[in-house]
């Protein structure tokens, strides 16, 4: 199959940082990366980036940021220097869409190009796993909100096909954020759609491809599902008030997000599934929608969950027309803390620190114990910029921002926390922050000290990396 070249896309030249929302990224085998400043000697491994990169095909394109065909990137750091590599994910959706020279499958905000009779008897689900990454045993995988999981080689970025689980569980929706616990287990949650919807929290043990369902529960209509959270004792799932309409999934050919309806009268719930015995408790909460958890932890008999709560209008704010037009972000998220108390059936959020999302804590704390500090991507509170434009450090005890790193005139994405091997102090490590300033030749990864929030070094990549969502660290 012949790939679409940058010159064949329908993309137009974009100014400044808005280049991050346009097609044109190339597959690069191996290119040196200029380092300005000094990298810590212990930082050895690979920064993995995943995200949409190709929105504009010769005969049609995508209209939403989330729908671009996925590209993987690796920034390798070792004693010999820093190098960059990029590869498109060779998924079924990518191959079919490139061959058709236009979108071939439905996506997040892309309706199915086939009519009703063309869809009969066919499973028309995208495997464009452009959101997040995790490991199932020793295998790296990329994920999105559909049940497909795409394996890839973290060094060569070669796509290795779908992970074929050995169980018979049926899932139609799945969290994009599978979580690895300290024992190497992979945890996730999915939904089986039907006259009623069944949530299934499952675990995959190292060396296995069987999804062991630890807990399941049924609801009339499931909520929009993007992530989950773990404590040492429980798996936490938040049922948003953006509710799935199962018949639309089956019959309409709608885009993914158009199969959900904002239903505030249905409220929301937080469900805790015991990791030990699968027992389930739940708490009603005011109607909400959230992509990501800052953290979750046990506090005596209470469970505490901190989310980045946003608004249902966020999805419409992220169309390419708005983003490429430089429209400011009118909706971001705020941190909301829920204290889930034994013997109670409801909880109210304590909301603090607005205009943030894409949270990160030290790896020794995530899923294991309470963290005091979190690092997040932040937006201009005056709503003057078209993208997230700063990295903020939040003191979760004081419930306030306690540090900021910001490159002038730049977009700044998720800050990936890479901790010193074996460290347990919360600020021991570096933040790797992908950025793109108006006058940059290519994307720049800032290496930021989590304590001082000052850049120790910058890595200057050989091309603009289209704006994605999440990163991961492949330790040497």
UniProtKB/TrEMBL annotation:
Swiss-Prot/TrEMBL keywords: Iron, Metal-binding, Oxidoreductase
Cofactor binding, note field: Binds 1 Fe(2+) ion per subunit.
Cofactor dependency: Fe(2+)
GO biological process, one term: carotene catabolic process
Annotated SUPFAM superfamilies: Quinoprotein alcohol dehydrogenase-like
Positions of Fe cation binding: 177, 226, 292, 470
Record InterPro entries: Carotenoid_Oase, Quinoprotein_ADH-like_sf
Domain of life where this protein originates: Bacteria
GO MF entry, a single one: metal ion binding
Family statement drawn from the similarity comment of this UniProt entry: Belongs to the carotenoid oxygenase family.
Protein name as annotated: Carotenoid oxygenase family protein
Organism the protein comes from: Ramlibacter albus
